[in-house]
Amino acid sequence: xxxxxxxxxxxxxxxVLVLLFFLxxxxxxxxxxxxxxxxxxxxxxxxxxxLLGYVGLLSLGHAMFFAAGLYGxxxxxxxxxxxxxxxxxxxVLASALLALVIGAVVLRTIRVSFMIVTLMFAQVxxxxxxxxxxxxxxxxxxxxxxxxxxxxxxxxxxxxxSAITRYNLAFGLLALCxxxxxxxxxxxxxxxxxxxxxxxxxxxxxxxxxxAGKLEMFVLSGAMSGAAGAAYALLFGYIxxxxxxxxxxxxxxxxxLLGGAGxxxxxxxxxxxxxxxxxxxxELTSAYLLVIGVVLIVVILWFPKGxxxxxxxxxxxxxx
Amino acid sequence: xASLTPLLVTSGLKRHFGGVKAVDGVDFTLHExxxxxxxxxxxxxxxxxxxxxxGRTEASGGTIRFAGEDxxxxxxxxxxxxxxxxTFQITNxxxxxxxxxxxxxxxxxxxxxxxxxxxDFEAETAAALAAVGLSDRxxxxxxxxxxxxxxxxxxAMGLALQPKLLILDEPTQGLSDAEIENFLSLxxxxxxxxxxxxxxxxxxxxxxxxxxxxxxxxxxxxxxxxPSEIRDNAAVxxxxxxx
Amino acid sequence: MALGPYLFLATLEGLVQAAVLCITAxxxxxxxxxxxxxxxxxGEFVMLxxxxxxxxxxxxxGHPAIGFAVALVISPVIVGAIAFASERLILxxxxxxxxxxxxxxxxxxxxxxxxxxxxxxPDARPVDPPFYYTIRFPWFGYSSYxxxxxxxxxxxxxxxxxxxxxxxxxxxxxxxxxxxxxAQAFGIxxxxxxxxxxAAGAGLAALAGxxxxxxxxxxxxxxxxxxxxxxxxxxxxxxxxxxxxxxAAILIGLSDGILSVMFSPTLAKMVSTLLVALVLVFRPNxxxxxxxx
Lengths: 320, 243, 293
Known about the structure:
The complex is a heterotrimer.
Chain A: H1 3-26, H2 29-54, H3 63-80, H4 84-106, H5 111-131, H6 133-136, E1 142-143, E2 150-153, E3 156-159, H7 163-186, H8 188-198, H9 200-204, H10 210-236, E4 238-239, H11 246-259, H12 266-284, H13 290-302, H14 306-314
Antiparallel strand pairs in A: 1-4, 2-3
Helix pairs in contact in A: 1-7, 2-7, 2-10, 2-11, 2-12, 3-4, 3-5, 3-10, 4-10, 7-8, 7-10, 8-10, 11-12, 11-13, 11-14
Chain B: E1 8-17, E2 20-30, E3 35-39, H1 46-54, E4 61-66, E5 69-70, H2 76-82, E6 84-87, H3 99-114, H4 121-132, H5 147-160, E7 165-169, H6 177-191, E8 195-199, H7 203-209, E9 212-217, E10 220-225, H8 227-232, H9 234-241
Parallel strand pairs in B: 3-8, 3-9, 6-7, 7-8
Antiparallel strand pairs in B: 1-2, 1-4, 4-5, 9-10
Chain C: H1 3-35, H2 42-59, H3 64-91, H4 98-120, E1 134-136, E2 141-143, H5 144-166, H6 168-178, H7 180-185, H8 190-216, H9 224-237, H10 242-262, H11 265-282, H12 287-291
Helix pairs in contact in C: 1-5, 1-8, 1-9, 1-10, 2-3, 2-4, 2-8, 2-9, 3-8, 5-6, 9-10, 9-11, 10-11
């Protein structure tokens, strides 16, 4: 990346974050809640996009990492009464570890096989959630106890029943993940990742360990998705098997494709549009998931690069 | 040359695809500083042979020793790190990156190999581009280059790796006569620092460049010698030129 | 019940499941074999077939067998037409790019499923079997309809075999499956073949849906299980091999039937999915290895 491209991207990301931060002062309550949800889902999509957009691996099973974070945090709080920061840390670690193990297996496959295998592993994870219903309460799920609605950290107490607190926590996580990914992509390792995406064979013949490069991104992606899941569980106080289902894997894909795979802010944009759309539509019909199908097909047929990807192609080649 | 330890030695090297013996027991020795050409009719196993050397294809049997080390089971990227560079027969570059960025990836590849912390990235990139004469096209998107220039970029990337052994798989295929002239002098420059192994169909190029020639037919080594020895070898004429 | 009859019952149930699975998986395998398209919406075609059968049954008055017979004809035709249109409008325009078509068929899955939710509603509705006769074994009575399903599957698989091996259409399909480019070079309209194959695959799924609905009820979410199971069958059976598909379907149908009796169905599904995923990873030269060339 050239210096001016680096500066442009940093500036754009900064502006978006500042805007998101100030939105909390103008939005009505309902939209603050929705904004919180969007930002957490954006972290999920960001993790998904790290894999699809920057090493070119399309996973159809990312719900398993979101769920690993969700249950990793939710179950330790519910059953063992862990403090929220400890539960969050554990959940991120657990999903990174899961990604390491799953990645080491599934990265032996490519393209179509990779998609099918990740889908199947995620299905196994989903069935596990149902099978261990004694712990997870299956489909019905669990609501976290009231004691888990506050965070005690360094002598301060954060009240999670406050919508504004939740908004800022979600914002903090999103900002952190965006910056992390940005730094990674601007580094030498990030260059190797995109090199693998653009031409795997060539990259290997330049002396790079392609498998390790993919696995590294797989773990980063899994950990980010897991962090999103953990944040979802702790901020909203509920865990359920829906979050492990195929639909959640597809939503991550949908957000990313719509916003633009391989663009830093694309997943966030995709989430904003889709969640708003689904929210409006669900007031009208119970078949609101129809929009998922329609958008997927419209994007894949006419905007395969997504919104920001198209903008990059036409007007802003520097966009990361 | 004979006093040096060989850079590369294969013994009994085999590669079978099902029943097809693409490479069938090749004993091959390459000395440091040589320019070696491999010739042979189509389907003789030349590309498979160099793929075995570079690690893109796994050997079915036999061993490969490079700079005194057994590399037979090493994955391709580790061989690159040890100094075996391979340029593809069909141009294989980062189509969407700029020419300079293509070379930068190669420089980065070398950097991780030698692990030099203070490394002048840009100077290394510029030097490799200058060597092949692509300096004025550094910011062009690689996919938009003319074919001949893409071949040169491919070689620039090989150069930027600063390998001990540079394998060129049919480097002059599709080049014009003027470009070939240019290429000949380029390879001679490279050969001052690295050993060169090239597969080549163009006999004029082979005769002009090679110190020694190895002839491969049906996966086996038929003959080996200086250009003039090979030219006068009856078996080679029958198997290769006569075919 | 003693163990013997118990196992006999489990085997019968397994065979019924295998029969339906065989037809569904044959459709998936055909589509993947000829078009190299992994059709994630395949289960929805089963669901559509079942739902159309329910409509046929509720619209046609008189003996249930009449509605059933009508459904057997119109279900595959309607579903085949829908598939044909989707192929022309979507898959063809994606140039059958493997990844893009998977994403597109996921989109199709949601469109079909949610449209059925709007038109048909969220309820599971039963359809009467065309006949009620119960066969009395010494230990238990067994629905003759289920035995009919097994017989129907045998007939349908025989028909598929005949079409593929003995007709010109089959020859064209096999040629396209063997090598798309070469087939094209020999003047086979591979492009048009694809549309018909996609329709035929969907038609088979719809047929399976019609056959299964008197046993299982029609519901807009019923497509998930057949999809997963046919994937498993196609992966284990090996691609393009109809005989492999049949063997794998019987194997999976029987073991799933028997395992589900002995363990929890969730556990059985979990373990088999995991095993099949591992088969795909560690035997890459199986069916999907060819796809990724």
